[in-house]
């Protein structure tokens, strides 16, 4: 049985991944989040809930006891501090495998008109903390996979393609369900895409902006 710690477990992608993990795998899940009472439908046979702060190294380290894989679904302007805390806690706990959700544009890798639109939309200090957080992860000795999704939709579809760091980003959008599916696939095969940073988009969604804008 694989023991998975989900940081930011109330996030939309995290909730989708959690449901898929319970349905499709035998993984045991530790759900780590602020205000843990927001998680209502706990499978007590396979899920443990921890109310915690992702900048609290001691709390994170304690939550990582017996954990095989950390899946971090964090996101706000404090994400660099969270990245530093997660790396420190994983080092202290001796956990190596990390799946880290980031965002597109952190390497200025989005080309063309969509790249300009994306940069304009995220201007004002949004991208910089995500870029800094990714640099913290990449400078660690962890077996990480960074995931950089396109603009997210709630479409009920699993359809995605990947680009590597250094390659131009493809597409403009992707479903949260697709990103959750990628997370689950990485948990099922922890040796895949180690020390990689993956752009994720739905094929054939090229254009100047996502379809829902």
UniProtKB/TrEMBL annotation:
It comes from the Bacteria. SUPFAM superfamilies: NAD(P)-binding Rossmann-fold domains. InterPro entries: NAD(P)-bd_dom, NAD(P)-bd_dom_sf. Residues 8-190 form the NAD(P)-binding domain. It holds the Pfam family NAD_binding_10. PANTHER family: FLAVIN REDUCTASE-RELATED, UPF0659 PROTEIN YMR090W. This is SDR family oxidoreductase. It comes from Lacticaseibacillus mingshuiensis.
